[in-house]
Amino acid sequence: MEELRSTEILDKEIESDARKKAEKILKNADAECGRILSDVENRVKEAASQKAEFYKSKIEQFRKNVEAAVPLEKERFLVDFYAKSVSAALNDYLRSIGAERRLSLIGKSLEKKLTVVSGKKIHAFVFGIGRDSASALLEKSGVSLSSVADISFGESGEEPALGNEIHEGIILESEDKSVRVRLTIDQIVRELLDSRSMELATTLFGGALPE
Questions:
Q1: Out of the domains of life, which is the source (predicted)?
Q2: Fewest Cβ atoms nearer than 10 Å: which of 85, 174, 198, 211?
Q3: pLDDT class for 113, splitting at 50, 70, 90?
Q4: Under a CB-based contact definition with an 8 Å cutoff, are residues 131 and 52 in contact?
């Protein structure tokens, strides 16, 4: 009987000791889990902070790029707007003055270039205007004509001026092909745009260009 009681006491002691060890292990495990969770939480916060800074930097860069691009886009738009407005006004004007006055403009262009063709036999290639009218203009100006032929604008080799819709003119070429002179509406428009585009735009907008 005494032996049985001793065994029960021993079992209780073993059980108590095991429980204490288990509690210690669990406490240590809880502490370790706490450290792990705390570390994870800190890492998450750090990563979130880094991401926030990264995206803040990206957003700021995007904002700066947009702000830099807006003036450039505005400038491109205004330049395009000026060019189209001036071209439209020139087209309207050239149509309104009629074929005879457009031929007169070509005649004024010829006056500036007579010295280039002086003393040479010239072939004239005409497009967009009557051949007889072109011949009369050239002969009146003292050009020594070998021939006058009708051609298309495409065959003339002339490049269209920006925005110009009226393609008329005369190409003069010496017999020895050493001289080639363009007397065209496109050339006149090009010279106007090159030398007086801002003046034309200012006049068109009543002295105050849009901003």
A1: Bacteria
A2: 211
A3: very high
A4: no
Q: What is the count of structural domains for the chain? A: 1
Residue 63 in domain: no
The crossing angle, in degrees rounded to 10, of helices 2-111 and 185-204 is 110
Strand-pairing partners, residue 125, are 149, 171
Residues of the domain holding 166:
72-204
Query: What is the Rg, in whole angstroms, of the alpha carbon atoms belonging to the chain?
Result: 46
Q: What backbone torsions phi and psi does residue 149 show, to the nearest 5 degrees? A: -130, 145
Q: Write the CATH number for 170.
A: 3.30.2320.30
**Contact criterion met (CB below 8 Å) for 124 and 134:** yes
For residues 96 and 35, which has the higher predicted lDDT (pLDDT)?
96
Residues near 152 by Cβ (< 8 Å), separated by ≥ 6?
127
State how beta strands 122-127 and 145-150 pair. parallel
Distances (CA, A) of 98 to 106, 134, 192: 13, 15, 19
Strands (E), 7-159: 122-127, 145-150
State how far Cα 112 lies from the chain centre: 37
User: Measured between alpha carbons, how far is 123 from 131 in angstroms, rounded to an integer?
Assistant: 12
Place of tokens 């009369």: 136
8 A C-beta contact, residue 132 and residue 149: no
Q: Which of 102-111, 142-151, 195-204 has the lowest mean pLDDT?
A: 195-204
Give the global pTM. Answer: 0.61
**Does 49 map to a domain?**
no
Within a domain: 160: yes
